[in-house]
Write a structure and sequence with these properties.
There is one protein chain. A 12-stranded parallel β-sheet has the order 1-3-6-9-12-15-18-21-24-27-30-33, with no helix packed on it. It has a 12-stranded mixed β-sheet with strand order 4-7-10-13-16-19-22-25-28-31-34-35, with no helix packed on it. By secondary structure, it is mainly beta. The longest helix is centred in the first third of the chain and has 20 residues.
Length: 450
Amino acid sequence: MNNKFKKLIAVITATAVVLMMTAGCDLSCYDPEIIDYLIAIGKLVPIDDTPETTEESEPTEVTEPEVPEPQKIDLNGTEGTITITEAGSYVVTGSTDNGMILVDATKKDVIDITLDNATIINPSTAAICVMKAQKVNLTLKGKCKLETSGIFETTEDNRVNAVIYSKTDLCIGGDGAVIISASQGKAITCKDSLYITDGTYVIDSLEDAINGKDYVNISGGTITINASDDGIHADGKLQIDGGTITIDAPEGLEGTYVVINGGDISITSSDDGINASLKDESYEKPVVEINSGNITIVMGPGDTDGIDSNGDIIINGGYIDITGSSTCDYDGTATFNGGTLVLNGEEASEIPNQFFGPPPVDENGNPLPPPPMFDENGNPIDPPPMEFDENGNPLPPPPMYDENGNLLPPPPPPPPPPGLDGQNGFPPPSSQQVPTESDTENDETVSTNG
């Protein structure tokens, strides 16, 4: 069969095939040679009618990235400074009575340090010092102890003044406990943002127990503080979201913006229980804001305030119980939107503005006699005589009560002896400011004595 004839047959056959396929017929009746020819010249496309087989594919094994083992630091038998210079996880165990953990990495490094039943005592500087890092996470495990046993040896280039000192963000948590003792200086100082998430803390310090710069946030944990200055201080914002906090200090909580969203807080104070004063110029004014929580404040006698704000006081919720001669004092406004406010045993419907001022006088300006005083059993007593310490400063009188057992404000102190107040021809005390702690960008050195 010549090619022209084959082509003619192919065209005719292809047309017939299409018509028959449209009608539902198959190709079994056609010459296989013609079918092969049609496929060869592209007029038909072969169909693979082999049934598909489904085979289960082997599962792909996923390999997780390897997590490096934490580096172990054993303090037993060591003295001096152990320096961490790289990002990573470190577990500190053992005990030293003359040592320090120093973090001096880069500003991109995140450092995780676990104190596992560790004890670090240093006679003249911090037990843990963070000079450079992006952030340091400090985890407590077991029973730990951190202490500066002597006087901090500070210089112009070295302003380290706390048992835990950090120049970068610091987060402390864990399920362990730590005793922090500062015979001089502060217990915890953070020059950036400080977070306490959980853990148990027993803090005894000559100055502030917890001191932060930009932001201090406490969201959990059990914290017991005995301090000779501020219990918890932030230059900027002090925020408490939870935890159990017990403070015995001249000032309990202090910051430019103090906000309490939860927690159980007990404060015994001889100055201000909660104080808001402008220490950060980025804020418009000082504010104390209470949204929730259980707060108990007991004030000592004298010129003391339970809640003292140089700006505003806002109470939106919570339970606040204040005992003292001056329960609330503010220079701005006070807003009471909700919650329970108990002042000297009685529930209040508004926030009073009280201050410890001069003694009351009659219409002619003559001092009124002091009200009768009683002891805690209701027996009348005479006002106690004013006593002075060795420097001539008046000592606070013991607490007095009215006939119903309510605490009375103490009598006002007498004027100071001549010469102590710039009167009577004596010059006033020098107005020159005493140099205070500073922290410059260049103080990248730390004493490693010991």
